[in-house]
Design brief:
The chain has 103 residues and is α+β, with helices and mostly antiparallel strands. The protein is 26% helix and 22% strand.
């Protein structure tokens, strides 16, 4: 699962002065359930970066990953520089994962 892979490799991102932030349209309570469930039991376990809740879907809309008619989002990865300039966008459908190595 890519959310775990990013957490496991967080030090590589920090070494290049990069922050990782996750975001989903699930509730904070759902996030807590994922984080409080050990990985070996199908959860996320402790994450080493923040996971935001976009319950009103505004962030998903703003970044163009919300599929409003379907009620879910595409998987999006956005690289934003220290000046706030969007440098790279990757979007994938839900069943398509991404490699952290390619980030």
């Amino acid at each position: 699962m890519e959310i775990i892979a990013f957490s496991d490799r967080i030090e590589e991102f920090r070494a290049i002065n990069t922050e990782v932030v996750g975001c989903s349209v699930d509730s904070v309570f759902t996030h807590l359930a994922w984080i409080n469930t050990p990985r070996k039991e199908g959860g996320l376990g402790r994450l080493k970066y923040p996971l935001l809740s976009d319950l009103n879907h505004q962030i998903a809309k703003d970044y163009g990953v919300l599929l409003e008619n379907e009620g879910h989002t595409l998987r999006g990865l956005f690289i934003i520089d220290d000046k706030g300039t969007l440098r790279q966008i990757t979007m994938n459908d839900q069943p398509v994962g991404r490699s952290v190595d390619e980030t």
